[in-house]
Amino acid sequence: MSESASQSSTPQSGVMQQGFPPEAAETLLALVRQG
Predict the structure, then answer these.
(1) Contact by Cβ (8 Å): 22, 12
(2) How far is 13 from 11, CA to CA, in rounded Å?
């Protein structure tokens, strides 16, 4: 179980390193869906 959790948290940490918070990604996705 912990392995899957680590895998799911890996991409999030990679994004945060770029200085792009996951919240911003969700907002952009919402805007794109609205078209």
Answers:
(1) yes
(2) 5
Judge whether 1 and 9 are in contact, CB under 8 Å: no
Q: Which two tokens stand for residue 34?
A: 């609205």
Burial class (CB in 10 A: 0-12, 13-18, 19+), 19: exposed
Number of domains in the chain: 1
Task: Note the pLDDT tens digit of each residue in 1-35.
Answer: 445 444 444 555 555 556 677 888 899 889 999 97
Q: Which domain holds residue 13?
A: 2-34
| Token pair in block for residue 30 | 């919402």
Predicted TM-score of the model (pTM):
0.37
